[in-house]
């Protein structure tokens, strides 16, 4: 069942209320976090709701999905910078508990293994936030990535580099590779929330609805997980069967 909201702000209100509730029930919650345009309104709402409700986030831990290889943590296009800009800098998080892959790591293979091991040591994250690329990627797991993959280095597809070039001054500045949690790591989350917004993702969602489970469309791996919620705006849901959609007219509001 797809949960369809009027727009991305309605999704953001619903999801940030869910995050506030999760952290209130478990102040030491371990979150799996994503970057990208889809997440920006969600983090903005969460920051607002967390402040309004005086939520204590000082013991929350997090693992981010991915990071570009070759960009330092403070590079304006790094995902580390993105997370500080949109979330971490606005609330009293404990920096030591916030983890992203290190794009400048020299021992990349060991670093990837340590990252997966750290996620496993926490028993997987409590809730994994996900966006999806137009080619079905989750994290930077491009089409063809094995579903049993752990954190690894990936060469970015041309499609993904073009999609992400909007955040860079020019196409040649978009890194050629990234570190990403593997699909196995993602599926180890106890709950997964996939957020899909925009008309440009409508066909991707149609392929998800109509297709089977295939490594050619990495996010179909989510069909193997028992606790996945897919939240869409009307534009992203526009090609889906009505019977497969539940419309959320009055989202939970904090
Ligand atoms: C980001 C990530 C990516 C994005 C996806 C969608 O950490 O892992 O998989 O979720 O590329 O990006 P947007 O939201 O910009 O459309």
Word description of this protein:
The chain has an eight-stranded parallel β-sheet with strand order 5-3-2-6-9-10-1-11. A three-stranded antiparallel β-sheet has the order 4-8-7, with helices on one face. Helix 7 (202-210) links the parallel strand 9 (191-196) and strand 10. It is globular, with a radius of gyration of 17 Å. By secondary structure, the chain is an alpha/beta fold. The two termini are 24 Å apart. It is built from seven helices and eleven strands. It has a single domain (2-247), classed as Rossmann fold. The model has no long low-confidence stretch (mean pLDDT 96). Helix 1 (8-25) crosses helix 2 (40-52). It is 29% helix and 17% strand. Fructose -6-phosphate binds at residues 34-38, 65-66, 131-133, 137-139.
Summarize the topology.
Elements lengths: L1 E4 L2 H18 L4 E4 L6 H13 L8 E4 L1 E3 L10 H8 L11 E2 L8 H14 L5 E4 L21 E4 L2 H7 L12 E4 L2 H5 L3 E6 L5 H9 L17 E6 L11 E3 L7
Parallel strand pairs: 1-10, 1-11, 2-3, 2-6, 3-5, 6-9, 9-10
Antiparallel strand pairs: 4-8, 7-8
Bound molecules: fructose -6-phosphate (F6R).
């Amino acid at each position: 069942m797809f949960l369809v909201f009027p727009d991305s702000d309605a999704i953001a209100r619903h999801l940030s209320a869910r995050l506030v509730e999760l952290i209130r029930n478990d102040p030491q919650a371990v979150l799996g976090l994503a970057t990208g345009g889809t997440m920006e309104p969600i983090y903005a709402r969460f920051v607002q709701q967390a402040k309004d409700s005086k939520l204590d986030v000082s013991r929350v831990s997090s693992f981010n999905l991915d990071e570009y290889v070759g960009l330092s943590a403070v590079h304006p296009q790094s995902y580390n910078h993105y997370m500080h800009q949109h979330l971490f800098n606005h609330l009293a998080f404990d920096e030591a508990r916030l983890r992203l892959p290190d794009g400048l790591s020299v021992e990349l293979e060991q670093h990837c293994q340590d990252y997966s091991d750290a996620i496993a040591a926490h028993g997987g994250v409590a809730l994994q936030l996900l966006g999806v690329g137009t080619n079905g990627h989750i994290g930077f797991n491009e089409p063809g990535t094995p579903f049993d993959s752990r954190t690894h280095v990936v060469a970015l597809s041309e499609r993904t580099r073009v999609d992400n070039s909007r955040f860079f001054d020019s196409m040649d500045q978009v890194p050629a590779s990234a570190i990403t949690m593997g699909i196995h790591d993602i599926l180890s989350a106890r709950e997964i929330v996939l957020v899909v917004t925009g008309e440009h993702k409508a066909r991707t969602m149609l392929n998800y609805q109509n297709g089977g489970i295939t490594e050619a469309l990495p996010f179909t791996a989510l069909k193997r997980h028992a606790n996945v919620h897919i939240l869409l705006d009307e534009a992203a849901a526009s090609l889906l069967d009505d019977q497969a959609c539940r419309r959320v007219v009055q989202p939970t509001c904090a």
